[in-house]
């Protein structure tokens, strides 16, 4: 299983150190949550921070756009150095067009759905995706509790993925920690986004080891 470290709960005053500590600890990707205060009730950052993070790590940058009409900013995030760009199916009238545009920009394309969106929303687009991101909390904030019914949804998404596009990775996002990581892995997640269970004032290497030990 791959771990994508979400910087949302990192100390932004020491962001370079936090990211480099995560890289040394062995996380696989850096996950960046872009929020617009409209699609989700929180604001974070835009391409300028992605560009700054690009300069301090060689890890793949996994950019999760929680913004309405994300197609307006795809070029900006691609040029800032994103490797993966994920848009929400609920945030655009034209998710297929957005996914194709991300791929035309030479990036891996992801589609995300919220906990209240039926899994079937993935079905028409799965053949075009590199990543299918299932929110396992309501998006907007780090440190929330994993929604238990997500586990059955991960199993359902795995079945869809295996049928329609075995090369697409299943990414789960929200509330993944040492208590829940085993369950999401068993259900079929390939990548876990982890924020507060990695960036919490304790050494990232110890936190990552605790997650990996559950999977041994
Ligand atoms: O997208 C989001 C929140 O909207 C996530 O990426 C969180 O950043 C995950 O944080 P934890 O639940 O792991 O603390």
UniProtKB/TrEMBL annotation:
InterPro entries per record: Aldolase_TIM, Ribul_P_3_epim, Ribul_P_3_epim-like, RibuloseP-bd_barrel
Cofactor requirement: Zn(2+); Co(2+); a divalent metal cation; Mn(2+)
Pathway note: Carbohydrate degradation
Source superkingdom: Bacteria
E.C. number: 5.1.3.1
Residues reported to bind substrate: 6, 64, 140-143, 173-175, 195-196
Protein residues bound to a divalent metal cation: 31, 33, 64, 173
Active site: 33 (proton acceptor), 173 (proton donor)
Alphabetical UniProt keywords: Carbohydrate metabolism, Cobalt, Isomerase, Manganese, Metal-binding, Zinc
Biological-process GO terms, alphabetical: pentose catabolic process; pentose-phosphate shunt
Gene Ontology MF annotations: D-ribulose-phosphate 3-epimerase activity; metal ion binding
Cofactor note: Binds 1 divalent metal cation per subunit.
Catalytic activity line of the entry: D-ribulose 5-phosphate = D-xylulose 5-phosphate
The protein's enzyme class: isomerase
GO cellular-component term (any): cytoplasm
HAMAP family in UniProt: RPE
Family note: Belongs to the ribulose-phosphate 3-epimerase family.
NCBIfam families, per database record: PRK05581.1-4, rpe
Function noted in UniProt: Catalyzes the reversible epimerization of D-ribulose 5-phosphate to D-xylulose 5-phosphate.
Descriptive protein name: Ribulose-phosphate 3-epimerase
Protein species of origin: Thermus brockianus
Gene: rpe
């Amino acid at each position: 299983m791959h771990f994508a470290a979400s910087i949302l709960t990192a100390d932004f005053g020491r962001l370079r150190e936090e990211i480099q500590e995560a890289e040394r600890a062995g996380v696989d990707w850096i996950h960046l949550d872009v929020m617009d205060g409209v699609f989700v009730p929180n604001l974070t950052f835009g391409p300028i921070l992605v560009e700054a993070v690009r300069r301090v790590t060689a890890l793949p940058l996994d950019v999760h756009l929680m913004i309405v009409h994300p197609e307006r900013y795809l070029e900006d995030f691609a040029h800032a150095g994103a490797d993966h760009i994920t848009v929400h199916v609920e945030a655009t009238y034209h998710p297929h067009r957005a996914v194709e545009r991300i791929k035309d920009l030479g990036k891996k394309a992801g589609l995300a759905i919220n906990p209240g969106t039926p899994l079937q929303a993935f079905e028409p687009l799965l053949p075009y995706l590199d990543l299918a991101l299932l929110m396992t909390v309501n998006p907007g904030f780090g440190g929330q509790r994993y929604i238990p019914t997500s586990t059955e949804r991960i199993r359902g998404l795995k079945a869809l993925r295996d049928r329609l596009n075995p090369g697409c990775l299943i990414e789960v996002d929200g509330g993944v920690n040492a208590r829940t990581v085993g369950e999401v892995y068993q259900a079929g997640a390939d990548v876990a986004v982890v924020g507060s269970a990695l960036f919490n004032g304790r050494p990232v290497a110890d936190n990552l080891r605790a997650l990996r030990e559950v999977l041994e």
